[in-house]
């Protein structure tokens, strides 16, 4: 690297400290709120670090005692897992064959633009008919119904990511296997899909995070513990009359943990997915 | 294999996706168009044909015009702030300093935090009685009395923009950083030998590498910001006095709170049309700048 004056070095380090503080302060504060006692959180002047560390709220939210705050929270946690899991699996099933087809067949490439275009549609443009259809089918307040609706977001997105993934696998490998007499299903199963495994994993993680994060459809289409997802449960807590801010913060920490862990450990894959998917389209 | 068969095979492989997309995207979109010409209610009455009444009513209403201004203000200000802060952060992260790799890793945190958790977190920070912002500003001495940041029309929108910006500028920074790392070292070195100042280097050496990725980030972020719902719903529900009501919130209220499916659908299509115009304009802009360079 080029040589830097001492002043420049100090400035760079100061700026880095400020950036780190900006990024960390809100997240750390969320965690501190979750382990502070209610009295610490409502004293003035505010106590920035709790007198005694209080982990009881984690116990409260993760308990399954009937009719408790915990029961509702645990139910919504499982609903989120079910909906996000099912929607991700279904999205991959429909996205993989189409993404491969688009990647290998230039003559149908235009259909990918149609797929990407739907990704720009605001959910409000589909919400009313989807609500009426789910209601007619008896799928309102139902995890299967919500997972189906999530496909509107996940299917175009995973197709887009998988297509750029298949693009980076040389088609010569496939043609060589064809010459050797392999059938298409053999080629895909034994050669292409194993090579595309990392991209599939990235696409699956992205899709899961998108579904985990979703709020609008969940707010509209679910109404109680049978299907309410975490995002709706947290919005209920935040907007309701809960006076224990620490409990709201704890719910936030628990809901944020899976994506934060995925984000930190899968950083490289996520960033290359973001930049590739975003730049190459 | 004939090219005919290859094309047919491609369509066959795409069939599951096409069926799903037609069933849950194509059909609902068409049905939204149909509903927008009726006075249908969300539950019960199917409604009868009313022509363009819904559109006329919605477009001429003061609600729509005010909401459009609010939405545009939110989108332009938050995206502009995210782009500027994001690029500055990326330039910093491209320098050498102790703990650089840790800080780069931390940048993923706000992006990974679920939107609703982010909104809840900032709602707690802005709390008028016990919030951390009031406490911090008072303890430093910048504020005499606690304020209701989300409760006053004058500050609510700005407070929302800050919350949105905190969550999204790191993504811009990561995209810009990836682009910066693609700038060849010898080019920057050569420009320094040639005596180019910091600004000239940024403008003429680095910017060409940043422009493409930043443009894509700009498009995606603007469209997202224009659609914003979650953040605002959790933090203010469009209040106080509708000062933070955006288009998506207005559609929600019309179609679901008031159960007027017909006029809600017409409003949703107006929003869709606005986003489409935005996307097409951006696409033209990108093509033009790609052709120029």
UniProtKB/TrEMBL annotation, chain A:
Localization annotation: Cell membrane
Transmembrane parts of this sequence: 12-32, 83-103, 110-131, 143-162, 190-212, 245-266
An example Gene Ontology biological process: transmembrane transport
Protein name: Carbohydrate ABC transporter permease
Lipid bilayer topology: Multi-pass membrane protein
Any Pfam family: BPD_transp_1
Gene3D superfamilies (alphabetical): MetI-like
Keyword 4Fe-4S attached: no
Record keywords, A-Z: Cell membrane, Membrane, Transmembrane, Transmembrane helix, Transport
Record GO cellular component, one term: plasma membrane
PANTHER family xref list: INNER MEMBRANE ABC TRANSPORTER PERMEASE PROTEIN YCJP, MALTOSE TRANSPORT SYSTEM PERMEASE-RELATED
Similarity comment text for this entry: Belongs to the binding-protein-dependent transport system permease family.
Organism: Phyllobacterium myrsinacearum
UniProt cross-references to InterPro entries, sorted A to Z: BP-dep_ABC_trans_perm, MetI-like, MetI-like_sf
Ranges of residues in domain ABC transmembrane type-1: 77-266
From TrEMBL, chain B:
SUPFAM superfamilies hit by this protein: MetI-like (SSF161098)
Bilayer topology term: Multi-pass membrane protein
Transmembrane segments: 12-30, 68-93, 105-125, 156-183, 204-223, 265-285
PROSITE patterns referenced in this protein's UniProt entry, alphabetically: ABC_TM1
Location in or out of the cell: Cell membrane
Residue ranges occupied by any ABC transmembrane type-1 domain in the UniProt entry: 68-286
GO biological process terms, semicolon-separated: transmembrane transport
Gene Ontology cellular-component annotations: plasma membrane
UniProt keyword annotations, A-Z: Cell membrane, Membrane, Transmembrane, Transmembrane helix, Transport
Family assignment from sequence similarity: Belongs to the binding-protein-dependent transport system permease family.
PANTHER family membership: BLR7065 PROTEIN (PTHR43005), INTEGRAL MEMBRANE SUGAR TRANSPORT PROTEIN (PTHR43005:SF2)
Entry protein name: ABC transporter permease
